[in-house]
Fold this protein.
Amino acid sequence: MILQSQSQSLRPLTTAHLAQTMTLLELNGEQLRQKIEAELADNPALEQIDEHRCLTCGRAITAPGVCPLCNHISEPNNDQPIVFVSPFTDFKPIDQVDDDEDCSDDDINAIPEDLPTFILRQIAPELAIEERSIAAHILTSLDEDGLLRIPIIEIARYHHCTLARVEKVIKLIQHAEPIGTGSATPQEALLIQLDVLAENPSPAFLRLYPSARQVIVEDIDLLSRRAYNEVARKLGITSAEVQRLATFISENLNPYPARAHWGDIHHSSEPRHNYITPDIIISHLYESPDSPIVVEILSPYSGALRVNPLFREVLEQAPQEKAESWQAHLDQASLLVKCIQQRNNTMVRLMQNIVRIQREFINHGDAYLIPITRARLAFELDVHESTISRAVAGKAVQLPNRRIILLDKFFDRSLQIRTALRELIEKETRPLSDTDLAQKLLSMGYPVARRTVAKYRAMEGILPARFRSGSSQEIQAQTSRQKPGLRPSIRVATAAVNGLANHNPPGK
DNA sequence: CTATGGCACGGATT
DNA sequence: AATCCGTGCCATAG
């Protein structure tokens, strides 16, 4: 991927046009935002107008979203995902209320987010417009641990709305990453995390669940003082079990959701769920997985961009010596606007196709990913391969199940096989050697060499056969991976940098 | 002797 | 043209 040099030549030749479209395409949301901000700052010809259009019909409306008329989207159709560019990302409420460090020009790649924005982004699609200011209020009132220490009633009063409404918003916040944020107490946060884990239980987990719950509700302070014996007595279980319980809790739950590191022990390849801003959000029109898919391509500026018509007029009477540079500004601005439209257009078409092809994957997880190459997609879209590469590079998508993945993952050739492999090993009764595994995979229709099995194993962080004897120890050996379903979360990653898309986010 | 990890080569992908 | 990925071969550990 050779980058076209950032310098924008001012000539509106088609080659410049092309070059800029390309460059824009490979920018992800945050980068594009910066670019546009810069441009707005020093190009008077470019104007940002506070105009929103209905996401489906294009009618002008007052706030970002769907206009009342279109609120019911006509004719849901499974083969035609609804794809649109959405102005959702600019969260006015936050910008106004929130004034701690503004991390606008951080590093370019990721993590340009503070926690409130990060969460708001996740839940925005589910909020009614009036609810967004409530959410913003709540999020900016969190203390540094991510807990909400102010009374809910106060918020309700302030916004003149019912308690139930505020609670609904809080509930959404609590279930967004990092899970538990917005709880009133550490206990509440723990309980929510526990319940989220319970949605996708492993047998070992189910055994622990009831007592874990009880301990958290009643005896959390005993536990934190490590008074295991006393807890054991109260619950009528052995103190060894309490011990286990404690380990489980400290490993999987986090009483202070906003604190990123929590004994951050684990290291393995996993580029943990960092604070990546999705550039695209995929969700279902209704909650059900077979309702039509809605793809939202977030655009990093609010309202619309256009060439300032006033500027155009003034240009007519420009003083001689200014005329040229003003003309240049004008050209540059209109070029940018065009290119952005082009970029949006490309992204929309791209997503339409990806979603159509990978619908099963989006709904049902890794095992259903269809291997597809960028080249083939390029062919179907009738664009150059490099266009796809650029469009895909460095962008993140949020799936309906809330997980945020890199768009690259849709093109992972081996993910399907790796998931199969993982499942195979989970179900194994005796440790299977790589050769055995290769054999099994072959019979499942995945012809892979023995050597390759080893590689996949490594990618998934699964130990060699020798080291995983019983299936029970295995659970502790790798509490973090396995279970395709979800375990994304509780242990929120450090905000450590994650390089962009080198190795794929192995499974999860 | 078997199971794995390392290195390196060639074809596919970007 | 530059990279990535699957494999084969070989050395090493058990």
